[in-house]
Write a sequence for this structure.
């Protein structure tokens, strides 16, 4: 039996999480019972929402108990199966949690359709971050050709796909990102029509005004706080504001008070939040759409790959410091 290395939640975060919030253990992997499979984890996705799962919970995910294995999704290979339809070597995705060799009931697994993409594609441009961008823009944002779109955290996992979807749909897209390198990548690789380095701007609203002349039809908000407020100032008539995430507020002692809600009324706009999990019955639609653009070479993806389970807590902290360049994943095996 292989050894199952795990990362357990040891302490709730007080600020940006890191290795100090976890302990490790190692024990022989559990043999699968009837209906279960033993897996080898290949990739783990590291996501900002994990901070709230570790802390107070947020209504859609029960908070993790101290001493329990850290939760998280990923891609794995079947090593041993006692479940119909699963054979050693099959690639699957599931909530594997932060461990090298989970044993999981097969009903929680989804077999990867390798006609859509590779295992790397399934953690990247076909993964949940990409699917989030798809439903956020198309369903919540009601994206239409010629819309003027603004995306924050545009170089990140969700943002980079949102920028490209908007461009593929014939929109004018501006991206906000932190730092010259990320902005250059959003402009040159993702082909955004305009970029804003929010870290270099003293007046973000003025910078949005310059990057989005004539205003914004769809604002895809990954960060919340003052960035959301600044974007609201530029809404066009009938604008849609997509509340995808609010990473800037994760560590705020006082939540930022939005001042420009009046602009929503004036523009007859709407603002709506969403969780990608509510679209699980339509994931296939998103993945088919994304895979087609991946196959024809138009959809780019930058993965930020860390090596080894011990890097997962470091990666989680990187998200909140803006140190990730692309969708952050941890590779445990090839
Ligand atoms: N609604 C849903 O179902 C759903 C699903 C997945 C993700 N999300 C949300 O989508 C957002 C992006 O997630 P992701 O996984 O793609 O992460 P990501 O964008 O790859 O990484 C997070 C990025 O946020 C930016 N950031 C961090 N702190 C910030 C601050 N104080 N102010 C402004 N920007 C800051 C950084 O980019 P810069 O270097 O550019 O600042 C950082 O690289 C998150 O808010 C996440 O919670 C929502």
């Amino acid at each position: 039996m292989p050894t199952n290395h795990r990362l357990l939640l040891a302490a709730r975060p007080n600020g940006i999480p890191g290795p100090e919030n976890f302990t490790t253990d190692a024990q022989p992997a559990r043999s699968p019972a009837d209906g279960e499979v033993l897996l080898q984890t290949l990739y783990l996705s590291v996501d900002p929402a994990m901070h709230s799962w570790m802390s107070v919970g947020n209504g859609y995910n029960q908070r993790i108990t101290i001493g329990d294995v850290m939760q998280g999704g990923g891609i794995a290979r079947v090593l041993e199966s006692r479940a119909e339809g699963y054979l050693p070597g099959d690639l699957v995705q599931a909530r594997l949690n932060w461990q090298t060799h989970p044993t999981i009931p097969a009903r929680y697994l989804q077999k990867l359709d390798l006609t859509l993409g590779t295992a790397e594609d399934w953690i990247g441009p076909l993964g949940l971050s990409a699917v989030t961008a798809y439903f956020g823009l198309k369903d919540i944002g009601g994206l239409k050709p010629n819309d003027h779109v603004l995306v924050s955290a545009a170089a990140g996992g969700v943002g980079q796909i949102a920028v490209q979807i908007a461009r593929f749909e014939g929109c004018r897209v501006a991206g906000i990102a932190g730092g010259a390198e990320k902005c250059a990548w959003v402009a040159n690789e993702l082909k955004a029509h305009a970029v804003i380095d929010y870290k270099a701007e003293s007046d973000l609203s003025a910078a949005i005004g310059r990057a989005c002349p004539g205003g914004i039809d769809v604002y895809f908000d990954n960060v919340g706080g003052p960035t959301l407020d600044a974007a609201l100032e530029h809404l066009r008539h009938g604008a849609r504001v997509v509340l995808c995430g609010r990473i800037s507020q994760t560590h705020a002692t006082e939540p930022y008070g939005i001042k420009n809600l009046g602009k929503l009324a004036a523009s007859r706009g709407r603002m709506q939040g969403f969780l990608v999990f509510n679209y699980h019955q339509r994931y296939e639609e998103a993945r088919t759409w994304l895979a087609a653009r991946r196959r024809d070479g138009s959809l780019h993806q930058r993965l930020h790959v860390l090596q080894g389970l011990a890097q997962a807590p470091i990666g989680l902290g990187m998200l909140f410091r803006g140190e990730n360049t692309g969708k952050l994943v941890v590779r445990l095996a090839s």
